[in-house]
Amino acid sequence: MTNLAFTGSDKLTEAIDAAVRLTSTPAITDQLRHSLCRMMRDHEVTLPTCVMSPVEGRYARRLLHLSEAHGYCVVAMTWGPGQGTPIHDHSGMWCVEGVWHGALEVVQYEPVGESAGLHHFQPVGSIQAGHGSAGSLIPPHEYHAIRNPSEKDIAISVHIYEGEMSRCNVFLPIGDGLRYRRSERELVLDSM
After folding, report:
1. CATH topology of domain 9-186
2. Please, what's the b/e burial string for 129-144 (b: 16 or more CB within 10 A of its CB; e: otherwise)?
3. How far is it, in rounded angstroms, from Cα 80 to Cα 29?
4. Which residue, 39, 131, 178, 184, shows the most beta carbons closer than 10 Å to its own?
5. Angstrom distance (rounded) from CA 37 to CA 180
6. Does the bond joining 140 to the residue before it have cis omega, within 30 degrees of 0?
7. Is 0.85 topped by the overall pTM?
């Protein structure tokens, strides 16, 4: 895999490299959140123009950087109007997510049980994240759903994962909407 060069890509990777050298996950994710917010606010990083193009029928995932030295992965996601995810996890990895353009609705869930192979979740918080905001997910509090609430505008987010995020568990509602069936999903990267 080739890392993508774009305006400010060196500043972004230097900030991530510095954060992942810290000794605790909360310290890493706190520093990354603050760094992302600063870079977005001060326009220190300009994402490649290809991330402005949504993909029909689903959100797009484009690899910006994969660190051989530290193992983390940076992915830009493009959300067309109304596009989103089901409830999903991050395979036990921490993640910091920043909204680069537009707005996203993020709903966090906590598992509250399992019976007959079906999972039960309770929503524990919902935020409307606008441009320049960033949040983090630290296992075991990693279950969430994301969607672009706009009916006409795209949204773009940048996700920094502890490792290469190539699969996750998704939880799809069955008939009653209270129980969910778990399924492993392979995550694809879209071309630049």
Report:
1. Jelly Rolls (2.60.120)
2. beebbbbbbbeeebbb
3. 27
4. 39
5. 34
6. yes
7. yes
Residue type, 89: D
What's the Rg (C-alpha) of the chain? 16
Cα–Cα distance between 88 and 71 in angstroms, integer? 22
Please give the Cα distance from 25 to 19 (Å, whole number).
10
**Residue among 105, 75, 108 nearest 89 (CA):** 108
Alpha helix stretches (DSSP H) within the chain = 9-20, 25-41
> Going residue by residue through the chain (192 aa), what tens digit of pLDDT does each one get?
457 778 899 999 999 999 999 999 999 999 999 999 999 999 989 999 989 999 999 999 999 999 999 999 999 999 999 999 999 999 999 999 999 999 999 999 999 999 988 999 999 999 999 999 999 999 999 999 999 999 999 999 999 999 999 999 999 999 777 899 999 999 999 987
Q: How far apart are alpha carbons 176 and 60 in whole angstroms?
A: 29
Number of continuous H segments (helices) and E segments (strands) in the chain: 2, 11
108 SS3 class: strand
Which tokens go with 96? 């910091």
Helices marked H in 45-191: none
